Structures are given as C-alpha cells and as structure tokens.
Amino acid sequence: MGAIEERMKDLGYALPAEAAPLANYVPAVYVESEGLVYTSGHVPRNPDGGFIAGKLGDDTGVEDGYAAARSTALGLLGSLKAITGDLDRVTGVVKLLCMVNCTPDFAEHPAVGVAGLPANVCVEIEMIVEVSA
Predict the structure, then answer these.
(1) Residue 102 lies in a domain
(2) Beta-carbon neighbour count of residue 58 at 10 Å?
(3) Order of strands, edge to edge, in the sheet holding 90-101?
(4) What does the pLDDT average to over 104-123?
(5) What is the per-residue pLDDT across 56-92, written as a single tens digit (0 to 9) for each?
(6) Contact call for residues 41 and 35 (beta carbons, < 8 A)
(7) CA 62, CA 127: separation in Å to the nearest integer?
(8) CATH number of the domain that 104 lies in?
(9) pLDDT averaged over the chain?
(10) Do residues 85 and 15 lie in contact, with contact meaning Cβ atoms separated by under 8 Å?
(11) Is the pLDDT of residue 23 over 90?
(12) Which pTM was predicted?
C-alpha cells in the first residue's frame, strides 16, 4: 500500500471495488506516450453498488451532494489505482470536471450545473491526471 492509500486509510477512507460501467466504455485509459490517464465520467454509488440519485435543489440537499461527490471521487481513485497499480504514481491533476444534477434555480454548486445526469445521479465527475512512468 502506497503513501496516498495510507493517508486515505488514516482519514477513514477506503477505495471501493471498481464498478462496472453503465454502458459500453472503460473507466480509465492510460496513454503512456503522454503520461496521462483519462477517466470516463464516474457517478456516485452506495456501498452496495446502487446509485446515489437525486436532484439538488429538489429532492436532495447540499450535504447529500457532498456525500455523492465524495463517493464519486473515491470511485475515480479506485479506477486510477486499477490502471496505474499505485496512486503514488499520480503527479498532478490536469483537469477535473464535476457536473451537478440540479434545478434551474439552484445556485450553490461550485462548478457545472446540469439539467440531468444518467440514472438521475447527483453528480458525475471525470478527470485527467498526469502519472509517472
């Protein structure tokens, strides 16, 4: 277990098992010639693997949105670990896109609010990270 996973463990977080994609795509792709990993959009999941669904500003509160984003981030890290073998290889985040499923009048999202997401999940996040060889 690398330093990043040790720190996550100290904070009470654990990487989930890599979830099956919702459609015909792969969770992450490592482009070795670029030193980059591109992830597909990841969505929040409950510990049982079910989706965390809801629309912020309607049937879901801000704290629930934070929990959904946390779940999604852990899923992204799980995909990074699966493709790189070690999170300590991640040297930087190039791009992070977070879409929040919210009502038109919801104004508390920090990034991109959208009218809807697959399976009515609260958030979807994708990212590009730089990794060492």
Answers:
(1) yes
(2) 12
(3) 28-31, 36-39, 123-131, 90-101, 112-114
(4) 86
(5) 999 999 999 999 999 999 999 999 999 999 999 999 9
(6) no
(7) 22
(8) 3.30.1330.40
(9) 92
(10) no
(11) no
(12) 0.92
Question: What is the C-alpha separation between 118 and 84, in angstroms, rounded?
Answer: 27
Type of residue numbered 105 = D
Among residues 59, 51, 60, 48, the alpha carbon closest in space to that of 16 is found at 48
Domain count, the chain: 1
Residue 5: burial class (beta carbons within 10 Å; 0-12, 13-18, 19+): middle
What's the domain range around 46? 3-13+40-131
Q: Give the pLDDT of residue 47.
A: 86
Q: Is residue 84 part of a domain?
A: yes
| Residues, the chain | 133
Query: Which residues lie below 8 Å from residue 59, measured CB to CB, with a gap of 6+?
Result: none
Specify the amino acid at residue 43: V
Residue 113 lies in a domain: yes
Residues 12-40: what's their mean pLDDT?
A: 90
Report if residue 24 sits inside a domain: no
